[in-house]
Amino acid sequence: MINEVESLRDLEVTCTNCEASCCRLEAMLFNDTEIPDKFIVINTRGESSMKRLEDGWCAALNRKTMTCTIYEKRPWICREFEMGEDECISARAANR
Ligand code: SF4
Ligand code: SF4
Questions:
Q1: Distance between CA atoms of 59 and 42, rounded to whole angstroms?
Q2: pTM of the predicted structure, to 2 decimals
């Protein structure tokens, strides 16, 4: 896994050659008031996150284009996620 992660570091990291890997991560919701209810799940502790489908991808992802269908209203945590950061590299490796 580490070697795989390190080898990915040598590749160009860009969303255009990625199958929305980060959209398989849990996306917690904080003060995100514009997310449609159908995309929200609430756990037993009362915490909200984006609903994910059985294969792990976020329910708000357009599966044909692999783009976010609520991009303008996407959660804060998705806005903060930066291409090329460690979590991005790890998500890409996990999605291979
Ligand atoms: S931010 Fe990283 S993991 Fe997310 S789509 Fe872009 S390259 Fe892929
Ligand atoms: S809300 Fe959009 S950007 Fe965030 S995980 Fe879901 S599909 Fe990806």
A1: 14
A2: 0.88
